[in-house]
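Lecture 7 notes: from sequence to structure.

We start with a single chain of 122 residues. Read the sequence below before looking at the structure.
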Amino acid sequence: MKKILFIEDEPALQKALGDFLKSKGYVLFSALNGPGGLELAKSQHPDLILLDLILPGIPGLELLERLRAQEETKAIPVIVLTNVESSEAVERAVKLGATTYLVKTNYSLDEVLEKVKAVLKQ
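Now the structure, written as C-alpha cells:
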C-alpha cells in the first residue's frame, strides 16, 4: 500500500481528504504544520506528499525547499494542494520541484485522487 503524507493546517479538510484516501486503500500520515510535516517526511518515507502552502511554523514553499535539500526526502513527489492561486507561487513551487500544483477549490476529491494515482503511476 502506498503511503501519503498530507500536510494541511485545516483539520476539516485534512479529515475529509484523509478519510477519502484511506477508503481508497492508501496509508495516510497527517501534519497540521510545517515542522511536523518535515519530521513525518523524514521518519515515514511516504511515497507522496500533499502539501498546503499556508502553514504555521514553516510555510509550504519553504518546506518544499527543505524537502528538496535533504537526501532522505528529495526524491519524494510533492503535489501542492492549496488555495493560493498566484502565478508567482505556482512558478516557485514548480521551480522547487513540485510535481503538480492544484488549487483546492477547483478540484473534487475524485479529481485529486486521479492526480494522486497519476503521480504514483497507479
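The longest strand covers residues 3-7. Keep this in mind for problem set 3.
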